[in-house]
Design goal:
This protein is of the alpha/beta class. The protein contains 17 helices and 7 strands. The strands form 2 sheets. It has a 5-stranded parallel beta sheet with strand order 2-3-4-1-5, sandwiched between helices.
Amino acid sequence: MAKKEHTFEGIVSDIRARNFSPVYILMGDEPFFMDQITELLLNSVVGESERDFNQIIMYGADSDAISIINAAKRFPMMSEYQLVVVREAQMIRDIEVLSNYVKNPLKSTVLVLNYKYKTLDRRKSLASTAEKVGVVFNSQKVPDYKMPGFITALLQQRKVDIDQKASQMLSDYIGNDLGRLVKELDKLAIILSEKGSNRITPELIEQNIGISKEYNSFELVKALAIKDVLKANRIIQYFEKNPKNNPIQMTLPVLFNYFTNLLICFYSKDRTENGLMAALGLRSAFFVKDYVFGVRNYSAMKVFRTIGAIRDTDARSKGIGNSSATDAELLKELIYSILH
């Protein structure tokens, strides 16, 4: 039988319905989703008045498998459940010993292992056993190209709307650093509350986060797509004057994402807006127009060479094969090579 792959949304839905699993192994590169699930469990499994006796938080560096098993085998006091959360579980040296408990866990205990920035070997006993009786969730980074949609969905949960351009601006500026993203959204939520509004616009972002609504990576991509040389040069001149908010390390991934997606477009049989949306997995026609223009204005070979030039610029910005050119000079050189 195929193993069930648990999704973040599915896990959250089950927890809110109080459909708890006896074991949660939360692992992977993205701590945001693990923290969200753990906090939800901390707020849901045991009532506030019962937590002194029935909620235990342990740390992997200070624990071993036997002490965790002993804690998990306790019965709750005047409560349906007890919750045992092990933070930094990747620090437990003998973690595989926990499989002895996971094979037959107490139904009244909810055991949570936060195994951050690493993944357990699913071929070994602990993970393979946990998959049969509980939840094993591999928390992965959100790909850059999915960030605008993720931002929109995250705000919908907060009952906040966001302009499509604004979501792209945030994505380009913050990337897929979800911890930083949430901090910025929290700040914007406070400002919206004070204004009596529930919609994030490019103007709101420009005024409160420091991203120019006219001179940003999103607008640079649009300028390159339509080969607007004047606008592209104005944007990189702005970047040169405001390097703190527009470092080359933030611009290059945006360009790389656009041109790698553009290369996919050349292999699509259907190059209409709907066809390209399907090929790229885009949810909105707002973002596909840049690819429609790109297909018209560039050849597949030019795009292929541009991807190589972006990689080369990235290496040179890190000091590889470059002894004197500044980041601003490297970006100007790259943009010139793209447009000519």
